[in-house]
Amino acid sequence: MICANLDNIRRSIALAAEKAGRNPDGIQLLAVSKRVDAATVKKAWQCGQKLFGENFVQEAQSKIELLDPSISWHFIGHLQSNKAKLAARLFGLIETVDRLKLARSLNRHAAELSKTLDILIQVNVGEERQKSGVLPQNAEQLIREIGELEHLRIRGLMTMPPFTDNPELSRPHFRSLKKIADEFSVKGYFSNDAPFILSMGMSGDYPVAIEEGATLVRVGTAIFGKRA
Questions:
Q1: What is the pLDDT of residue 226?
Q2: Low-confidence residues of the chain, pLDDT below 70?
Q3: In terms of C-beta density within 10 A (0-12 exposed, 13-18 middle, 19 or more buried), how is residue 47 classed?
């Protein structure tokens, strides 16, 4: 079932890319494995999935230490500063950096590990009070300040638009993030050492996100089914 689900999603990604006149090879699929056990993650890996995303640091640690080291892991949940040390060690990329205090903590721990840690800046495009993410009007100041931290590499932007059952209602938010990304790219705010990442779109709306420029989509339910 997991292999079939992954195949279906990959075909859907290719169709959305074709509709937008894009190369599907430029779009990454991140399998969201929150509350999915290590054995099930292993099945997805055996089906060819190499990139996984986790929302909770300690849950992720229990899987990462059991599974193949070739797997790439992104952190996609709200990260507290007191978990930054462990997150810096476990993950190849932190998608949810939204404040300078967290960035400084990650930078310090990355320095201790003698590594450069890839990050995305999470932007709250819907300006929802209950959601994490820097507000669009404050994003440029934050990204300029984080750009001074030598052990962090800013790879791009990430967002979670307001929840809706209608994917078309997410389109303006995806378009807004792409516009911000284009403006920041012109100003040279993103690393030139690795491909730019625009992380947006989940199980219910990732084709629309691809049409609006996503280079990474975060899909969980459509791969693993509903979780408790």
A1: 86
A2: 228
A3: middle
